[in-house]
Amino acid sequence: MPRPVQYNTKVKLVEMPKGYSGEGFFATSLDKVVGLARKNSLWPLPFATSCCGIEFMATMGSHYDLARFGSERMAFTPRQCDMLLVAGTIAKKMGPILREVYLQMAEPRWVIAIGACASSGGIFDSYSVLQGIDQVIPVDVYVPGCPPRPEGIIDGILKLQDLVASESLRRRTGPQYKALLEGYGIQ
Ligand code: SF4
User: Fold this and answer.
1) How far is the CA of 48 from the centre of ligand 1 (A)?
2) Tens digits of per-residue pLDDT, 109-166?
3) Secondary structure of 122-186 in the HEC alphabet?
């Protein structure tokens, strides 16, 4: 190596991009980091009333193992969950209860309608059955089938994960989401 050592003095420093920084981290798009964390840690709240609920049990079992997608932590308390899974026939009398459960969930929260009954009333086109849970609460993903297989339910959760990952950090205050909730009379 020739002496004296030559250093590259032509290095140009550029301005730091806009972003968020804190102790030990710098991120240019915090939304993506938060989206990544949220999508891989969805906590399910099963609201299962009939046959589709059995398929959900299989989805949670060791063969299909929903834990692979970060959703093994089920709770039966709305305040500790962010993914409401409605599986089964919902009678009209049960509508207000389902709505109450949804309201007790903390933001951000998401809803999947599992199977034909939750999505549209299914074969029960009768006076007593709610013709789809979207009559009382907003739904993010619909899973078709009567009943859907566990693969279908997993596919629905993966679709929801895509949605969660790409949503804005402050979904709750977004104009579109606010308008959606207002449409349901939820402030
Ligand atoms: S969609 Fe079919 S399998 Fe699911 S709850 Fe309704 S009747 Fe049962």
Assistant:
1) 11
2) 999 999 999 999 999 999 999 999 999 999 999 999 999 999 999 999 999 999 999 8
3) CCCCCCCECCCHHHCCCCCEEECCCCCCHHHHHHHHHHHHHHHHHCCCCHHHCHHHHHHHHHCCC
Q: For ligand 1, which residues put their CB under 6 angstroms from it?
A: 50-52, 88-89, 115-117, 122, 146-147
Name the closest-CA residue to atom 5, ligand 1: 88
Q: Which of 79, 70, 88, 69 is nearest to 45 (CA)?
A: 79
Q: How far is CA 140 from CA 108, 111, 156, 162, in A?
A: 12, 5, 10, 11
Domain boundaries, given as residue ranges, for the chain: 38-162
- Classify domain 38-162 by CATH architecture: 3-Layer(aba) Sandwich (3.40)
Task: Indicate if the pLDDT at residue 1 is higher than 70.
Answer: no
99-112 per-position pLDDT tens digit: 999 999 988 999 99
CA–CA distance, 136 with 116 (Å, rounded to integer): 16
Preceding amide of 108 cis, omega within 30: yes
